[in-house]
Amino acid sequence: MPTITAKTSGTDPAVLASSGGEALHAESTSSSVAAVAGFQLDTTDTSSGAGVYGEARGGGAAVAGLQTNPDGNGPGVYAEAQGNGAAVWGRQVNTSGNAAGVSAECLGSGHAISGVQMNPASAGAGIYAEHVAGLTAGFFRGNVIVTGDVSFPGADCAEEFIVKETSRAEPGTVMTLIDSGELEPCETPYDKRVVGVVAGAGPLKSGIVMGRRHDRTRPRQPIALVGTTYCKVDAQDSPITVGSLLTSSSTPGHAIAANDPMRAFGAVLGKAMAPLASGLGLIPILITLQ
Question: Which residues contact 155 (CB under 8 A, 6 or more apart)?
Fold first, then answer.
């Protein structure tokens, strides 16, 4: 086979191929080298040129890799990064489109996407996802199986409920159920309709929020039902100490110490985790509806 060498000192391509069929076809009978190899030789940090570049102006793929050996273990496409960059990076730049930056399908019994962190000393994730606006970073249609621990930075388990007025349902507000099925701030002491506290007050956020709806035609708020959350409390008539059982009060959206055991049955909201000697305040509580 002849050897062809092409070199240019400018920005024009060293080799330009154009055809109605394959513009470039390469084969290798070696078991250790590629049929086509591309090297970007500029070693400066500011270099942004690719070793191999593909562009499609029709409906096909810009770059395609196919592993045709049914007994082979080699990938269709292999990428490796020895610096600080990503081995594979995909970007969808159509801001009005809904296609993925990276998409994978599997027609066999394996995984469509598999991520394994091979450094035992690293705290990096096998698969990492982030939404820059703090919205949904991961969406799963189907079951999810976890063989290890599931950790949440938040401190309570909340559920979204329809509220009568969002302006009166700020985080930390004690909420009660009304006949329409909506929630509103409590206004009655020892109210057995007490449901929970609007989540998100102070430094504590929810770990889990259930019942989220994409339809926002009716106002909804996450209500902390289990765990630790910050709550508005009223200690004007009776001080609140650590461990005090709390119930609804006549001060809208606030809890008071449940000092009457007979009235407290069925109306306990939770247990105080910090004291308040007098006045109105915001303290962490452990939600324990009973």
Answer: 204, 205, 206, 207, 227, 228, 229
Structure tokens at 152: 């949440």
Q: How many CB atoms are closer than 10 A to CB 8?
A: 9
The 3-class secondary structure across the chain, one letter per residue, is CCCCCCCCCCCCCCCCCCCCCCCCCCCCCCCCCCCCCCCCCCCCCCCCCCCCCCCCCCCCCCCCCCCCCCCCCCCCCCCCCCCCCCCCCCCCCCCCCCCCCCCCCCCCCCCCCCCCCCCCCCCCCCCCCCCCCCCCCCCCCCCCCCCCCCCCCCCEEEEEEEECCHHHCCCCCEEEECCCCCEEECCCCCCCCEEEEECCCCCCCEEEEECCCCCCCCCEEEEEEEEEEEEEEECCCCCECCCCEEEECCCCCCEEECCCHHHHCCCEEEEECCCECCCEEEEEEEECCC
* pLDDT tens readout for residues 138-184: 888 999 999 999 888 889 999 999 999 888 899 999 999 999 999 99
pTM of the model: 0.68
Q: Domain residues of the chain, as ranges?
A: 156-287
CATH number at 156-287? 2.40.300.10
> Amino acid letter at 104?
A
Question: Contact at 8 Å (CB) between 268 and 240?
Answer: no
